[in-house]
Design goal:
Elements: H1 2-10, H2 17-22, H3 26-54, H4 65-89, H5 97-119, H6 134-137, H7 140-166, H8 171-198, H9 211-242
Helix pairs in contact: 1-7, 3-4, 3-7, 3-8, 4-5, 4-7, 4-9, 5-7, 8-9
């Protein structure tokens, strides 16, 4: 009900949508949506990964791996959700388009997780645990897993993208979205260092013992281009703001010397 209320208030049709569409710079809007999709994806799926890491139990080698994997996965899923929402919103502002943006963004963010859940139970959190049988997985267990770890972050990402697409463009919006992308890249780069400091010492010699290093490398590989993209866009935006705007005829400097005498016929 909360999600429906937010969408009803923020996404209700407005009669001045066509006029807003004319004043909306499409190139900046596209980059803003992509930046916000990635940043929200890191936060949403990273939070789900953190919740999973906390629920792992007394297995230190697994403690922070789901957090890093969730944040890295959020970049890809948030980008897919943002690109999907742009495909729908590019067709024009018409009645009901906001619900189309929300639905297609939700599908883009949850499609991979939904297909993975339908293919079978995920691998157990610890190497010596037995995998779930199909009888135990398909049913309430899969529904609970899908709603909490697949649908919930996809809904958060879809609502944010739809509200962003529905609002009138403001120049500060591009600065904020680029700054959010920079922060997401910094978080991905610092996450392995912070987690390795806070996580307990590795114990056991199962197949999960080396996953921490792989998760950290994955964060760095994804975090570097995210950070660079955000910094480059911020630099371009500030450079564009510093360029002198074109002067009107009244503001142009007048030539020196006496003005020519008017021609009398």
């Amino acid at each position: 009900m909360i999600i429906v209320g937010v969408l009803h208030v923020g996404l209700a049709p407005h009669h001045d949508d066509p006029m807003r569409r004319k004043d909306l710079p499409d190139d900046k809007r596209v980059w803003d949506v992509l930046c916000v999709g990635i940043a929200v994806g890191v936060v949403a799926w990273g939070a789900i990964g953190a919740w999973t890491a906390i629920a792992v139990g007394n297995y230190p080698w697994n403690k922070w791996i789901p957090f890093a994997n969730g944040a890295s996965k959020g970049v890809v899923l948030g980008l897919i959700a943002a690109a999907a929402s742009l495909v729908v919103s590019a067709k024009g502002f018409r009645t009901g388009w906001r619900w189309s943006v929300f639905i297609i963004a939700f599908i883009g963010g949850s499609l991979l997780g939904t297909v993975k859940d339908l293919l079978g139970a995920p691998a157990p959190a610890v190497y010596f645990a037995e995998p779930l049988s199909d009888e135990r997985w398909y049913g309430t267990t899969m529904l609970s897993h899908w709603s909490g770890k697949v649908a919930l972050p996809a809904v958060v990402c879809a609502v944010t993208l739809t509200l962003l697409a529905a609002r009138t463009y403001r120049p500060r919006q591009s600065i904020a979205s680029s700054a959010a992308l920079v922060l997401a890249g910094v978080a991905l780069l610092l996450l392995p260092l912070v987690a390795s400091t806070l996580a307990p010492e590795i114990q056991g010699n199962g197949q999960h013992a080396n996953e921490g290093a792989l998760a950290g490398i994955r964060c760095w590989i994804i975090g570097v281009p995210v950070l660079m993209a955000g910094l480059i866009r911020l630099a371009l935006l500030y450079a564009a703001r510093e360029e002198p705007a074109g002067l009107s005829k009244e503001e142009r400097p007048r030539p020196l010397g006496p003005s020519p005498a008017p021609i009398v016929r």
